[in-house]
Amino acid sequence: MPGKFSLLARFITFRRELVTLWQAFLAPETPMRLKALMLLVPLYLLSPLDLIPDFIPIAGWLDDAVVIPMLVSWIVSLLPKVAPVRPSRPTGTNGDRTIDGTWRRL
C-alpha cells in the first residue's frame, strides 16, 4: 500500500505544480523563454509525435503519464524564486526611522 500513498502524493504535487506554472505564465515578470517552455506541455500532449505512440493501448498512455509530470517538474524547477517580502521599518513617534537591529555581520 505505500505505493498508493506515494502515487497520491505525486498527483497532489503535480496539481500544485500545474497551478504554479499557470500563475507563472500569467505573471509579467516571468522570462519569455520560460513561458515558451511552458507551451511545450500542451504541445507534447497534442503532438502526434510521442516517445511511444498513443495507438499502442497502454504503453502510449503510460508514456504521457510519465513524461508530462517530469516536464512540468523540470519547468517549475527553472522558475525564479520569489524573494520574501519584509515589512517596512517601524517609524518613531516623531516620524523618524528607527534602526533595524536584525542585520548581523558574519
- Overall structural class, as computed from helix and strand content, comes to mainly alpha
Q: Tally of extended strands?
A: 0
The average pLDDT is 79
Outline the biggest β-sheet.
none
Number of helices: 4
Strand percent estimate: under 5%
Instruction: Give me the Rg, rounded.
Output: 22 Å
Distance between the termini: 49 Å
Describe the protein's architecture and organization.
The structure is a single chain. With 106 residues, this protein is mainly α. It is 56% helix and 0% strand. It has 4 helices and no strands. Helix 1 crosses helix 4 and helix 3 runs antiparallel to helix 4. The protein is elongated, with a radius of gyration of 22 Å. The model has no long low-confidence stretch (mean pLDDT 79).
Please give a quick description of this structure.
With 106 residues, the protein is an all-alpha fold. The chain is 56% helix and 0% strand.
Notable characteristics:
single chain; 106 residues; mainly alpha; elongated
What's the structural blueprint in terms of helices and strands?
Blueprint: H1 2-26, H2 32-38, H3 40-46, H4 59-78
